[in-house]
Fold this sequence. Notes:
GAR domain-containing protein; coiled coil; mainly alpha
Amino acid sequence: xxxxxxxxxxxxxxxxxxxxxxxxxxxxxxxxxxxxxxxxxxxxxxxxxxxxxxxxxxxxxxxxxxxxxxxxxxxxxxxxxxxxxxxxxxxxxxxxxxxxxxxxxxxxxxxxxxxxxxxxxxxxxxxxxxxxxxxxxxxxxxxxxxxxxxxxxxxxxxxxxxxxxxxxxxxxxxxxxxxxxxxxxxxxxxxxxxxxxxxxxxxxxxxxxxxxxxxxxxxxxxxxxxxxxxxxxxxxxxxxxxxxxxxxxxxxxxxxxxxxxxxxxxxxxxxxxxxxxxxxxxxxxxxxxxxxxxxxxxxxxxxxxxxxxxxxxxxxxxxxxxxxxxxxxxxxxxxxxxxxxxxxxxxxxxxxxxxxxxxxxxxxxxxxxxxxxxxxxxxxxxxxxxxxxxxxxxxxxxxxxxxxxxxxxxxxxxxxxxxxxxxxxxxxxxxxxxxxxxxxxxxxxxxxxxxxxxxxxxxxxxxxxxxxxxxxxxxxxxxxxxxxxxxxxxxxxxxxxxxxxxxxxxxxxxxxxxxxxxxxxxxxxxxxxxxxxxxxxxxxxxxxxxxxxxxxxxxxxxxxxxxxxxxxxxxxxxxxxxxxxxxxxxxxxxxxxxxxxxxxxxxxxxxxxxxxxxxxxxxxxxxxxxxxxxxxxxxxxxxxxxxxxxxxxxxxxxxxxxxxxxxxxxxxxxxxxxxxxxxxxxxxxxxxxxxxxxxxxxxxxxxxxxxxxxxxxxxxxxxxxxxxxxxxxxxxxxxxxxxxxxxxxxxxxxxxxxxxxxxxxxxxxxxxxxxxxxxxxxxxxxxxxxxxxxxxxxxxxxxxxxxxxxxxxxxxxxxxxxxxxxxxxxxxxxxxxxxxxxxxxxxxxxxxxxxxxxxxxxxxxxxxxxxxxxxxxxxxxxxxxxxxxxxxxxxxxxxxxxxxxxxxxxxxxxxxxxxxxxxxxxxxxxxxxxxxxxxxxxxxxxxxxxxxxxxxxxxxxxxxxxxxxxxxxxxxxxxxxxxxxxxxxxxxxxx
Length: 991
């Protein structure tokens, strides 16, 4: 029994030990899988370009990783519980070492799992922030690029307007405002730079917890290049603004200079023409004075070409500044016309001077006579001949001969100085030529250096000749002021010394270049041999394996090889140092010879870098080889779930009602299409790598893998054929509808403003014609808009037929139809109002013309009556009554016209036009009233004249009675009474 019990205990302990070993191996396997999973995060899911779409896709991938970690949670929990149970129940049966290892593995697994969960959550949050930052960066850069493009066009417009002097000041103000705007917009560029820094910080934060061996798959090169392009464009815009302001300042200066030259030319023409007029009309001047003044004016006319030349030069400078602008031909033509006018004016001035000079010369010849002039010439010739034939005596006296010798010494000194100056000028020019040749001659061109040395030797000999000539001149008796000769000799000597020094420098530089070339050749040979040896080592490496242990060994060997490759930097630095010194020496040597040193050095650097790239590529391939199977399966699952999600999302999209919504939907579809292509490409790459590595070792696995691939490809094709094109077509139709709706809205708003700008109807025929033309133009455009509206209704019907839920656009279409119909009614009403006002204006104009003619006739008749005597007016009372009746008729017509244009009229008329018509009617009415008052006055005068006649007749009757009574008394009283009676009668008639 004890033996059996011991055997059972031994068997139980062995069983517990085997179980502990199994649990330990399971924990190790899960830890390895977690490690590979953690490395997969950085090698697979954090490898994308910095753009909003790629960041969003990466965020979605990390979200899927979080979901997969939730699936791992149960498995990890079970393993940990089994280990805890084993440690609790079988603690006595497990050895202490095995117990400690098991607990350590258990605790390490829990720590690793929690670390991976925190890492994924951290990546998910940072990717959200990164996606929002990228969207903001893209939006701001696009907005700033559009603004800069617009400002570039504005700069071109301002430059074109600056060509006209009349618009230059306004254009300069616009350019200044534009520069202020550009300076203000620099804050937007700084904000974009801050966004770039934040994006790079977020990218760095993503890799804070990355393994040391993980390579970075997110590169900010593209986004940084985008910022650099925006920065360069902004700098170019600033430079364009500065160039524009400098161009305008230059144009202003050239324009002012041209105006000043034009003013000087005009002043000069005016002055000389005034002087010529005074000479032509100066009767108090004699012939000599006229000729003297004409010669002076002729000289002024010749000298005046300077002013004309200055004006032409100023014109050419301005035209050269305007070269390339659209206004250049017009300005050039105008300047040519002005130049032709100046030349013509100058030619006419010279012709007038010549005519005046000929006239004065003829007058002088007529006054003095040709014979006197010839006589004076003959006498002058005789006198000159006598003086020319006079012999000079040579005295044989020492003092006199010394005096004559002194004069000969002067001639010798003069000839020597002249010869010395000629030699000095020749030597100076030769020195300048040699100096120019030396500056352009390379220190490595031995032939040219020898030629220059020979030329300098020849110049030295010529300088010695000059020194001898100078010494000979100095030996002439009584010479003074020899400093000029000494300075000339010293100047030439200094130039020759300078040339000799420069030639010596060329020779020394040649020696230095030769020495450096030898050093460079040696460094190049060492670097080439080292690169060749390292290439042979790279070629001897085994291909990348698919076995994990071999890959680990290959990774270690590769790291050792990379450390060895860094030793080549020493040779590379030596080569670069020698190359730099050689290039500097060749630059100092002068000449135009292109050196091959930089090219050779860059080729070796490129070979060295290519080796480094090849090793980095191999390391990446080694790191990626272990993950291919897991990546392939994950890629297939992710693509399948992603396709299902996108199918659901596409089926739930509604038709957008705004352009931004359409663009967002199209951008989403494009992102989806691009993401699908990327996912399919990624999956195809995985399949290609799987086939290349031959990971599926059996025909069954190959068949299963091909079936899964075919199913995913079918889902992908269905998505591309059915869902995406249908959604894109709906979005395109909605975009067309929204654009058409916006166009009609814009047209309707513009035409409504135009309808308001036309103003109220008027009776003015010209204005009414213009208004009617504008209204007819709007009516013609209205026909095209009706057709567009019908097309929009058709598009909306097609959208509604395809998608029953797409009813968001229907209210907008109904509102647009109603507003379009309302505008059409307003337009028709406006046309009728304008037409009625125009017809009313024609009628009023016709009535007004008739009334004015009648008023003129009546006024003429009244004036004629006013010029008659009262007794004559009395005989025309009937005519006055007729005229009065006619005035009443005209007054009624004026009242009728006033009622036609009055506020109570049913015709709408402009208030100012109505007030003008009422003012005209009031003027006519006042004139009719004034004529009525004149007729009333004439009538009163006629009536008063008739009353006075009746009284006179009554008095005459009374006097006749008295006469009859007196006649009888006369017979009785006699002649005395007759005389008295006659006297009384005369007195009465006189009263």
